[in-house]
Amino acid sequence: MKPAATSVPFAGPFALGTLSAPDGMPFPALVTPDGRALDLRAALGERELTTRTLLESWAEATPRLHALARDDKAAWQPLGDLRAHAPVEPRQVFQSGANYRQHVIDLEVAHRAPDDPRTVEEAREEIAALMDRRAAEDLPYVFIGLPSAITGPYDDVHLPDWAEKPDWELELAAVIGKPGYRLSTDEALEYVAGYTIANDLTDRATVFRRDMPAIGTDWLRSKNAPGFTPLGPWIVPAESIADPGDLRVTLKLNGDTMQDESTKDMLFSVARLVSYISRTSRLLPGDLVLTGSPAGNGIHWGRLLRDGDVMEGSITGLGVQRTRCVAKETGS
């Protein structure tokens, strides 16, 4: 796969990434929509700087980043000559499930009991009303992912031999920019530094424990294989995204559109998710909040991932990621 993409610009004057020369070490980078990259370690005079440590001083760093983006005399490099890695290494990954109204309705209808007396139309109406009540009165559903599952936006995705039904789940991810605990919904977005793209791959065959059905979902097994969370390519500052609740989430498989939905369909907004998570956990700079995936997963189409498939995921204003699936042989 090509190491860096320049064909789909992002919103705003700059974004953050983590890049490297072909044989070099990764470095935090300032990236511009016209395809230039600047090593922020040298530009800011901090040799040990990473994207995450930059986020730890996000409010102070932002004016300097704006100035650098306008500096034509800085040591810019062509973006196409560099490899793009995941834009940040988070300490915590929070993942929201069942957060898109249409997606949940589709799943519930598809998994009706064989003896369900309702017609499809009746079932959809009843489930839609339930989802509307949930959005108004209930709590988000959030679980924990592993940072070790994250990979770069153009890296190959290795499908383990035990994954019988690997599936895609393209998602908007919020990137936390300062520590936060017990935040209100009104203040929650003040703690979001920016947004990026995540593809939360899931092996549908191992979501539920067959040996212990009562124990419920097994997110460790089904979602956290190495490379099961392609991330990026960029972190676009929140100030450049007018409304995270009005973005288009699109995933193409081998050129065919499989997911194409607006974040308007989310049951719980980014602000509500961040606030809810912070009531239990202390949010840290660089943490990720994945906001759920819209309708159009492989299980819906009856077409799961296999060797050679190429996924292309894009979200309005955030760029595009492209990943190729490679079957991993037994024992490798």
UniProtKB/TrEMBL annotation:
Coiled coil residues, start to end: none
Residue ranges occupied by any Fumarylacetoacetase-like C-terminal domain in the UniProt entry: 93-324
Keywords assigned: Hydrolase, Metal-binding
Top-level taxonomic group: Bacteria
UniProt cross-references to InterPro entries, sorted A to Z: FAH, Fumarylacetoacetase-like_C, Fumarylacetoacetase_C_sf
Family indicated by similarity: Belongs to the FAH family.
GO MF entry, a single one: hydrolase activity
Upper classification of the organism: Bacteria, Bacillati, Actinomycetota, Actinomycetes, Kitasatosporales
UniProt keyword annotation of Zinc-finger present: no
Pfam families: FAA_hydrolase
Keyword Cell inner membrane listed: no
Protein name, entry field: Fumarylacetoacetate hydrolase family protein
